[in-house]
Amino acid sequence: MAEFDTIIKGGMVVDGMRNPRFRADLAIKDGRIAEIGHIDTSRGHKILDATGMVVAPGFVDLHTHYDAQVFWDPYCSISSWHGTTTVVIGNCGFGFAPVPREQRERAMLSMTRVEAVPLAAMQAGMPWDWETFPEYLDSVERTPKAMNIVPYVPVGPIMVAVLGLDDAKAGRMPRPEEHAAMCRLLEESLDAGGCGWSAQRMPPTGPAGAQLDFDGTAMPTDLMHNETALEFARVLRRRNAGHMQTTMFTGNPKADQAHMAEIAEVSGRPVVFNVVQAQDNHPHVHRKVIDWLERCRAQGIRVYGQGMTTDAGYSFTFEDWNLFDECPAWREATVGTREERLAKLSDPARRPALRAQVPAFVLGPFEAIVVTGPRSPDTQQWLDHTVGLVAEKTGKHPVDAMLDIVVADGLETEFFSMPPNTRLDLLKEIVDNPYILFGVSDGGAHTKFLTAGRYPTETLIKIVREHGMLSLEDAHWRLSALPAQLAGCGERGALKLGAPADIVVYDYENLEILPAEIVHDLPGGEWRRVQRAKGYRYILINGEVTIENDTQTNVYSGQLLRHGGMRAAIPRATAA
To answer: DSSP state, 12?
Structure first.
């Protein structure tokens, strides 16, 4: 009888621990790596031929929003198609628990703009068989999964549960008893399996106010007070476990950085800061962030940056687009029903304000946006024109040139824009810092605009193979072991004896990202944009093949990794 369940035979092992690559076989038993070396095929029940392939740990993505999608898509695609085997959900303070029955619709609406998750898909695809956070995790655990799930505790729903929606969104300072109640809910959620807590803090003023509620107002965490964050940090200190994820742009970088360093010091736990992004015309921005991260490291303060290393770009129409919210005039003009938005964007009285606030935070140059899908006879002449070229030919301001096409097409014109981070020399500055994480895939969010879940494949192709910015050894450490350690799932992210067998087997020389496509595979008749990968021979999760030759096997071996899968529930400590 075979000794091992599976043997991966003859591959080039890159173990994720930055050891030099080596040729070896891997044996798997009961979902874990049981032996590494020369292993006779007679000892395995199943043999996977990895000749000519790289064998490496599955990728760990710390920044996703699959909180809803996991219920209708066991693969959490597109991440799984690109070798990701573990994702962290509940980012930015956004989530669906604790949420009482009567607030479910409001909770779903809150995700339609800030993360652009289609309402119809959530309504049709979420079981809503929970109210509390522990009940939500139980529901995720019951759901078939071809992906490992690690949950943050998003603090937005906790704030609403204690303060009420109106007060949470008004930014009222919680009373001491309310802070205590929020901390009790956080403790309960961490006891149930949370790996830490998350919060977006981007007040809707200034250039970064681009992540708003469905009605254009701030999200509760945007108005969270520093003292509340410190109270949550003290919970982690008492437990000596977990970490924090935050996106913080209040308009005062020095104060933001000082606060993030303070919650790291008070908690004694790591902070993951989103996002470190190069901007082609403003390189001083990411350089200052890198300098700050290095100062934190020198002082022993655990603040890690998460780098935006993909240049996936954005395809969008004004039916759904919401990432111009950095500009108040655009924000106000793009909320409401379709008819209301069409009327606002066609209103000549609004155009001066829209021209005066040309968006620049999310996209590259406004004039470089390309018209890729005109919808009416009157606009077909502008196919493949940039907005700048249309403006030049028509003698209009670029904003008017774009919006006149949008109005003529009834908001259905499709545009494409590269992000503001296309320069390779600036990307290399981020890559050169070994402690900046890769990613910010936003998997499960912005699915009609963005395909950033491709970033692991893009890293291997662009950063390693094409431009030699990193070795494979260093790339796999950055893609797997480093984020796994931060997420509290340190068993994963490396190929070593006894580790869970989350493994990618891929054809390094022929790895590809396929062109973007539209698929109508969401509940409620909704659609999304996807990009598939080519070159993944096998992807295994907990020892089972979930993808073979880039095709799903419909094997659901993923797990809910409570506390990152590293330990049982941690009893809450008594405050001193």
So the answer is: E
pLDDT in tens, 263-302: 999 999 999 999 999 999 899 999 999 999 999 999 999 9
The two three-digit tokens of residue 402, written as one number: 């774009």
Rounded Cα distance between 7 and 24, Å, is 11
| pLDDT for position 502 | 98
User: What residues does each domain of the chain span?
Assistant: 4-57+497-554, 314-417
Distance, CA of 468 to chain centre: 25
Q: Tell me if 320 sits within 8 A of 448, measured CB to CB.
A: yes
* Cβ density class 330-349: b for 16+ within 10 Å, e for less: bbebbbeeeeebbebbeeee
Q: Determine the distance from the C-alpha atom of residue 464 to the mean position of all C-alpha atoms in its chain, rounded to a whole number.
A: 22
Task: For residue 395, give every residue at least 6 positions away whose Cβ sits within 8 Å of its Cβ, in sequence order, or none.
Answer: none
The stretch 304-327 carries a mean pLDDT of 91
Q: What kind of fold does domain 4-57+497-554 have according to CATH?
A: Urease, subunit C; domain 1 (2.30.40)
pLDDT tens track for 70-100: 999 999 999 999 999 999 999 999 999 999 9
Whether the bond between 275 and the residue before it is cis, its omega within 30 degrees of 0, is: yes
Pair 533, 458: CB distance under 8 Å: no
**DSSP-derived pairing of the beta strands 22-29 and 4-13:** antiparallel
